[in-house]
Amino acid sequence: MFDINKIRSDFPVLAREVYGKPLVYFDNGATTQKPARVIDAVREAYDSYYSNIHRGVHALSDISSGKYENAREKVRAFINAESKKEIIFTAGTTASINLVAFSFGERYIKKGDEVLITALEHHANIVPWQMMCERKGAVLKVIPINDDGSLNLEKVNELITGKTKILAVTHVSNAIGVINPVKEIIEAAHKHNIPVLVDGAQGIQHGHVDVMDLEADFYVFSGHKVYGPTGIGVLYGKRKWLEDMPPYQGGGDMVDRVSFEKTTYNELPFKFEAGTTNFVGAIGMAEALDYIGSIGMDNISKHENELKHYAKERLEQLGGLTFYGTTANTISILSFLVDNIHQYDAGMILDKMGVAIRTGSHCAQPVMSRFGIDGTIRASMCFYNTKEEIDILCEGIEKVKMMML
Amino acid sequence: MFDINKIRSDFPVLAREVYGKPLVYFDNGATTQKPARVIDAVREAYDSYYSNIHRGVHALSDISSGKYENAREKVRAFINAESKKEIIFTAGTTASINLVAFSFGERYIKKGDEVLITALEHHANIVPWQMMCERKGAVLKVIPINDDGSLNLEKVNELITGKTKILAVTHVSNAIGVINPVKEIIEAAHKHNIPVLVDGAQGIQHGHVDVMDLEADFYVFSGHKVYGPTGIGVLYGKRKWLEDMPPYQGGGDMVDRVSFEKTTYNELPFKFEAGTTNFVGAIGMAEALDYIGSIGMDNISKHENELKHYAKERLEQLGGLTFYGTTANTISILSFLVDNIHQYDAGMILDKMGVAIRTGSHCAQPVMSRFGIDGTIRASMCFYNTKEEIDILCEGIEKVKMMML
Amino acid sequence: MSNNGKTINQVQDQIIDEFSLFDDWMDKYDHLIEEGKDLQLLDENEKKQDFLIEGCQSRVWLKPDFDGEKIYFKADSDAIITKGIVALLIKVLSGRTPSEILETDLYFIEKVGLSQNLSPTRSNGLLAMVKQMKLYAMAYKAKQKG
Amino acid sequence: MSNNGKTINQVQDQIIDEFSLFDDWMDKYDHLIEEGKDLQLLDENEKKQDFLIEGCQSRVWLKPDFDGEKIYFKADSDAIITKGIVALLIKVLSGRTPSEILETDLYFIEKVGLSQNLSPTRSNGLLAMVKQMKLYAMAYKAKQKG
Ligand SMILES: Cc1ncc(COP(=O)(O)O)c(C=O)c1O
Ligand SMILES: Cc1ncc(COP(=O)(O)O)c(C=O)c1O
Prior knowledge:
The complex is a heterotetramer, with two copies of chain A and two copies of chain C.
Chain A: H1 4-9, E1 17-18, E2 21-22, E3 24-25, H2 36-49, H3 59-79, E4 87-90, H4 93-108, E5 114-118, H5 127-136, E6 139-143, H6 154-159, E7 164-170, H7 182-191, E8 196-199, H8 211-214, E9 218-222, E10 233-237, H9 239-244, E11 255-258, E12 263-265, H10 279-295, H11 297-318, E13 321-324, E14 333-338, H12 343-352, E15 355-356, E16 358-360, H13 365-370, E17 376-380, H14 387-404
Parallel strand pairs in A: 3-15, 5-6, 5-7, 7-8, 8-9
Antiparallel strand pairs in A: 1-2, 4-10, 9-10, 11-12, 13-14, 14-17, 16-17
Helix pairs in contact in A: 2-10, 3-10, 4-5, 11-14, 12-14
Chain C: H1 8-20, H2 25-38, E1 60-66, E2 71-77, H3 80-93, H4 98-103, H5 108-111, H6 126-145
Antiparallel strand pairs in C: 1-2
The complex binds pyridoxal-5'-phosphate (2 copies).
One pyridoxal-5'-phosphate sits between chains A (92-94, 122, 124-125, 170, 174, 199, 201-202, 222, 224, 363) and B (252, 275-276).
């Protein structure tokens, strides 16, 4: 049973007020709030068994190491990876993509090669590829989007050439909520033996992800956007790639033997985890995945879908709004502008009414450029949000219009 | 007043038992325990004002951003950097060194150039330079150590050539506790216009660090070794270098404008902070620095020094031990072997007596090779440890000898 | 914009007085919006890249005019609230000498409740605007001497 | 090492019985050390890189001998406790057929309290030793068939 009041009471922040008004938190695309379970798991790690992991021969190190490796197993199960060796803990989505761009680039990209991304990407899935292409003399190509925000898939086969070495695509657009048909894209790319990285930063928290079913070569996401702590993320990579790619960062735990003459590297997953990892973060993230599991991803999707439809309907009734990402296949993110009102003005007023939305380009300037705008108002909702909160957003928009028009 | 009982009660973990015995935590070199204040600061961030930082126009984002930037200011003050722009938050020491090795390397290192490190380094201050040198066709040179574990400084001027582009040296050796005369080393290097990176992972928590006085070009450390959370670290860099070096990772917040044709980068410190940083970690680390400040670094050093001398004396009385790093200038780390007993056997028995020490090569295999050994027993003490705990360690060593010899 | 012979601090105090009438955030914003309407705007052809202030979520153009003694500012923004903020700054700092501008402590910002906008991470660029005004003042001061 | 006609599980049960006499960890370790002393050691010239097991804090050499039907193991380690652990494994698994070795569930490890040593992150290599023994068994089984 999906009991929204029970769920809301799991999240301490949701009970707070801002400016004397109840907080309406619609900035989940930027980061999600944490259930008490996650906060407690982090606290417990620090106050009852904390110690550095691996290589320790004492009891606390054993406990911490066990919890960390257990977290890895939970992540593996959550995305249905074949092996724990394919789960690399990183600092977040951005770190994961940079790792792949660097190590894949070092191994496979030569001058004149091509990297294919899409016009829907977050800067985190653009800039690392740009930097790598510049270093290697490779070329970045971009799959365009249609007016409704969906990818122009007809262009994919046109853009894939004999020189294309990797394709990177976001599972879900953080800027306009569009869900990409990643399974089909992967299938198309694999026909040409091109591996695909899926940026799952906005995908992992809104629906079932099965990397084996997707046949994704890489799938990356951040803990903090899936109800877990900050500073932790995941890189899933197919073993064949991870075995073959050189390490990214050097340091402790990622090595086997070090001498000044020759250093050999540790096996997976440790080869890509240099230094003391954020193991407390990993433990917290695993707790978050357990929590989501206890709610049920189907329940989550269902509730979020209802919210999306309700919000769309209510906002459309207000009139004078322009929406971006109008294709049907979206998550519970609404990205829009109030006609003739700057998104920043709207954001400032909504804030004072207790409504936390995000304004601006959402780290996706090319998406904004595509639509000829500077930014939008983005209300990103998740399973702890309610229709009442959407009503408050609507009141806020009315107020904005009253004050500004 | 330095009240050890009060201090111990600040650290929840110290009250616990292992195998029914009071925990004696002597693995502070690997990671330090957290005072309740730090754990509370992390909890508070998650349960009362959590939100993503920067670019947000709403109240919680403002609070979080303010706390994060305030943490940056606290770090700046703690190490006496000139400007907040010089404080980059990273995932840890390893990440910081990899950042410098990459970005400095991209900007300044050409084929045939030389990088100078020392034989005392942790793998984190070896492998990133090896990887960079290999990529650039540069040469890694190593300042050797004397039998007492101190650096052979006479070799420095010999090893510096017209091709030397950077020198990287640890402030304090994690493997054998030796404190390096970093100020003199920096002075010597600067005579030849060679910048110096100081690995402060074991330096920051044991004495005053003043980067302006040191004239360090880069100083790096980890939050988790200075009583703060995991997954957060610091890169201090002189502005002139950081301005000149290209970014390391690409993503959100580190860019100014992004287009597929041309991306421009944000100003310092953001240029080097790609993606959502571990801002909760940064807030926790700043709280840890405040805590240390409230105890007083002089008090800390004094107590740790007493512990070191007491431990050395007591252990020497036992007889049959060989110490490594016998120079006088060390921190409260004792690295030794019980003659004819494998360090691993000793560690297993000590563990069961409640004593957490570390055995092995301490991620510094070249130091072990220098002394012709596989590893040592390392007791790394800090200001919350006591002489009584040292007595328990000594009992443990006696027991080990009884069982094994 | 003329300052009617008032000192900088007299203008600041007057702004504080006016804002003190409002308890509610919405009333404050209404007032800020009104202030923006009084702003002497730039002509469209003056909205050049040169006068654009970086680091704002909304765009702000700020154009200085120096008559050898005092600096006069004109400005515009595509966001109404930002326009109001820059209008307040101009009310206080326009028609002042470079030295006056450089020495001024802008205490009204905190008093009227806009200081949250001052954080370096806030994207509305209040901090950037103040910085830019002081930069112009520094440049003109150097010119005066030179 | 001969197993006196006992089945694998009989040997495991016997080990569990022996360890059950000790409540105290130190007594357990004393017993483990004694077990290590019974181990049929490798000659120095047999301690080759080939027989070294990776991933241990202490070094462990493990040498198999296959007579066409059963595998006999000899081992050594530079750490006494590790030697005791490998001695127990050999007691259970030496002189068995490849199939027996592959099918065995080594429940004694948990029962005698050594399972904390089984974690993949533990550096004593108990897991690595078990893996290595099973790998040898797999190889010889393939040979038997081939
Ligand atoms: C001297 C030294 N350098 C670097 C490191 C690496 O620090 P971290 O694992 O936190 O990245 C350590 C920690 O073990 C250290 O002691
Ligand atoms: C689609 C997408 N990709 C990547 C990122 C970057 O994630 P992080 O900032 O956690 O590294 C985000 C988060 O803003 C995102 O929404």
